[in-house]
Amino acid sequence: MTDEPSEPPTHTGAVRRHAAAPTGTSWRSAPGLAVRGGLVGMAESVPGISGGTIALITGLYDRLLAAASQVVHAGRELVQGVAQGHGLRPAGRALRAVDWRFLAPVVGGMVVVLFASLSTIAPLLEEHPVPVRSVFFGMIAVSVLVPLSMMPHRFRGLDAVLLVAAAVAGFFLVGLPPSEVSDPSLWYVALAAAIAINALVLPGVSGSTLLVIMGLYIPVQQAIEDRDLAFVGAFAVGAAVGLASFVKLLHWLLGHRRQGTMAVLAGLMIGSLRALWPWQDADGGLLAPAGAGAVVGPLLLAVAGAALVGAVFWWESSRVVDE
């Protein structure tokens, strides 16, 4: 069985800027790719922020998903080759097809910054929740324009239905109350990782938020700090299985149902804004600001966050067009 992965079709306008993938990547691009991967990793450490959203903004999304699909294909070729007595040759061919000059620096930057952010940005969010959430709220709010700009056709009625349905689903998902698991079993750790890792490729859904809901956000931080290899190993195995199970489906949807998929992704991003509302109680319940004076500072921070994302999107679009 050869089931070679295919690239999503390119389209006109804004879609081409994000969807078109070059046939190869130069190692000279590695530093820039590592920085963009680091931004994705930083997002994954913050509840309410999806790494997939940042991948969209920085122009990594289609290529990252295609590369992940190729790696999954190589893994399947490895299992089938061994089971059918064909050896490692089919898997070797599949692995050589992966654009490692793109994938390696992106994943490397992502992992390094993710671990660093778990001990820096997450505590900052706990100490200064309103200003930090305000910045991220503005960033994600303006980011909704990114998947809408990547639609191959004009926005239609069915797209509106899908967007609203996804927004409602995302709103209620991130509004689920957090749970507490003091001593999670390894099978639960692997299951939670399999679910949360999909936020890496699904804009609008935060892996950290899912871990908070499942009661594993703090245990994951503690396991990393304590170098609990059994916990980290179970998490890594679950993440690998979960990502391999979902990435092929999403890659197919982007290649064959791109219009509707982008509408759903935009809706999920809108719904996820609930997790970033600046004023919340200890359980994540939404609160009103305490007077008009309390709105000015967060509003200015939200505008600054939106302007930052707008500048990044403009830079990424102009850079790719110039190339």
From TrEMBL:
<protein>
    <submittedName>
        <fullName>DUF368 domain-containing protein</fullName>
    </submittedName>
</protein>
<keyword id="KW-0472">Membrane</keyword>
<keyword id="KW-1133">Transmembrane helix</keyword>
<keyword id="KW-0812">Transmembrane</keyword>
<feature type="transmembrane region" description="Helical">
    <location>
        <begin position="102"/>
        <end position="124"/>
    </location>
</feature>
<feature type="transmembrane region" description="Helical">
    <location>
        <begin position="286"/>
        <end position="315"/>
    </location>
</feature>
<feature type="transmembrane region" description="Helical">
    <location>
        <begin position="130"/>
        <end position="148"/>
    </location>
</feature>
<feature type="transmembrane region" description="Helical">
    <location>
        <begin position="160"/>
        <end position="179"/>
    </location>
</feature>
<dbReference type="Pfam" id="PF04018">
    <property type="entry name" value="VCA0040-like"/>
</dbReference>
<feature type="transmembrane region" description="Helical">
    <location>
        <begin position="230"/>
        <end position="254"/>
    </location>
</feature>
<feature type="region of interest" description="Disordered">
    <location>
        <begin position="1"/>
        <end position="28"/>
    </location>
</feature>
<feature type="transmembrane region" description="Helical">
    <location>
        <begin position="185"/>
        <end position="218"/>
    </location>
</feature>
<dbReference type="InterPro" id="IPR007163">
    <property type="entry name" value="VCA0040-like"/>
</dbReference>
